[in-house]
Design a protein that fits this description.
Strand content: under 5%
Number of strands: 0
Low-confidence stretches: 47-62
Helix content: over 70%
Mean pLDDT: 78
Distance between the termini: 8 Å
Number of helices: 16
Radius of gyration: 27 Å
């Protein structure tokens, strides 16, 4: 186990390096970087100032002198060659320094920390509701395999899986937020949330989070439900079930004390990755649709504005978290089921 763990940790380094290198190279070929955007904004500002003063010439068209251009490049770190910038970034990430945002004058870590509660709210609610509904539903489908309930529940679950979350979100907003006006259209809390009592704050928060969570959770039922159902059916057909029934154990005890325990092994071992991933779940379209300022919206705005420190810093953080949780999930599988070895 120790040798396998060390090998996986060593394999994380080239994987992480490859992800960062590929993204960094792609960024170099994307037009409209921060220097170009700064120059464009400067020209617009200068032109507007000249027009306000009644000038007849558009001064922004005169461009920027070479000295000023070099200062701007040095401001954003583009005065160094690309290989040196990449090495400096790696050394920075090795010290867990995610860098500073170009446009918000704040560290990337503080930006992630500020946006994390919104994405956590969506991710954790989606995680818990998905498992609390999908696992019992999968067990019920396995017990009633081949029945009408099994068939129609499969159709409903797969239909929900096929509908994109943002499409369902639009429908929910139009029906329940616009026509019926049962739920708010935007935000995680009301503007006067700070003035409410403790109980009213909880109700207000749940009132606002209901539609976004519903839009995200419907599509997440299918995988866990069908995995639970198929695992239960596979365990039911095994020899130890017949042995337990021959010993006189009740059908309920055999099903829930033996079959369910073994069938949930692949579900349980996926908990660490799913739970940790819930903290960093950022659904761009759902967050944008419901005006929720989370990690998904932060990533989108960073790409649009070419805020490279935020793009690379969040990519490094999320990739590292993903690799670690994947390792933890594999180790949990061996811990839950002693029959599994990594030799």
């Amino acid at each position: 186990m120790l040798a396998y763990t060390l090998k996986r940790i060593l394999l994380m380094l080239p994987t992480l390096l490859g992800v960062l290198l590929l993204t960094f190279v792609v960024i170099q070929f994307v037009p409209g970087g921060p220097v170009e955007q700064y120059l464009a904004e400067a020209k617009v500002g200068t032109g507007a100032g000249a027009a306000a003063e009644g000038g007849l010439q558009y001064r922004g068209a005169q461009g920027v002198d070479d000295k000023r251009l070099e200062q701007i490049k040095a401001l954003y770190g583009f005065d160094k060659p690309a290989p040196q910038r990449f090495v400096d970034m790696l050394w920075q990430f090795a010290r867990f320094d995610l860098g500073q945002s170009f446009y918000q004058n704040r560290s990337v870590a503080s930006l992630v920390w500020d946006k994390l509660p919104v994405s956590m709210s969506l991710g954790l609610w989606t995680f818990f509701i998905s498992y609390l509904v999908a696992v019992p539903l999968g067990v019920a489908k396995a017990v009633r395999a081949g029945s009408r309930f099994d068939t129609w529940s499969t159709v409903v679950v797969l239909l929900g899986y096929a509908i994109p979350g943002f499409v369902l979100g639009v429908a929910l907003l139009v029906v329940f937020g616009g026509q019926l006006q049962w739920f708010p259209l935007r935000g995680l809390t009301s503007p006067h949330w700070a003035e409410l009592s403790w109980g009213a704050k909880v109700v207000d928060y749940l009132w606002h989070i209901a539609l976004p969570v519903l839009a995200m959770v419907v599509g997440s039922f299918a995988v866990t439900t069908m995995l639970t159902r198929n695992a239960m059916l596979e365990e039911i057909r095994k020899q130890y079930v017949l042995t337990a029934q021959a010993k006189g154990l009740s059908e309920r005890r055999v099903l829930y004390a033996h079959v369910l325990r073994n069938a949930l092994l692949p579900i349980v071992t996926g908990f660490p990755a799913a739970f940790v991933g819930a903290f960093f779940t950022g659904s761009l379209l759902v967050e944008t649709l419901f005006s929720l300022d989370g990690l998904g919206l932060l990533s989108y705005e960073s790409v649009i504005r070419r805020d490279y420190p935020v793009v690379m810093g969040t990519l490094y953080l999320f990739t590292l978290v993903g690799l670690v949780t994947k390792l933890i999930s594999d180790l949990c599988y061996a811990w839950v089921d002693p029959r599994v070895t990594f030799d």
